[in-house]
Amino acid sequence: GENVEQHPSTLSVQEGDSAVIKCTYSDSASNYFPWYKQELGKGPQLIIDIRSNVGEKKDQRIAVTLNKTAKHFSLHITETQPEDSAVYFCAVVSNTGNQFYFGTGTSLTVIP
Amino acid sequence: EAEVAQSPRYKITEKSQAVAFWCDPISGHATLYWYRQILGQGPELLVQFQDESVVDDSQLPKDRFSAERLKGVDSTLKIQPAELGDSAMYLCASSWERGITGELFFGEGSRLTVL
Question: Is A83 helix (H, G, I), strand (E, B) or coil?
């Protein structure tokens, strides 16, 4: 199966600064790369996703970049706010089936 | 806004007892997933349904876990007997797209504690 590595496991930033989380994967057949935000006691929620035919996607303060050659993709959050504090998971999905492989998560803390 | 419904939200049980979790996906969603999430880790797939059929249950410990989605709508995940290592959050998710990877919608989860 797919091997997804996510770094860092914890990240603390000052409010207003940027945060970057990176994931690497192993299966070159993977073609869908979503990012989920999970708040305490809740299920994960999709915040942004990217498909293999584009290199970057942006939605307000959140962006995702994809390097298919190097098999890594990153989540970028700019102008961080305290409400961005949560656990963030990357996921990788292969074009051979709707199987989502999740990273181990990054606990982001935004310090006011 | 349509949501994936799960119950119970919390369950405390003793080892060797039977436990059941229920999930009602968003109406019209063909694909349903059960994930297990251990504290501090990412969700791990237990079973995936396409309508009423099992697509992938390779990671489901079949000696004690079972899952069904009889009419292709709601689903039940059962553990019998529960073991200490089963303590985790059990997440249900659904997706409406068939054959094309689409957004996964998660429920709030069922947190299981086995004593």
Answer: helix
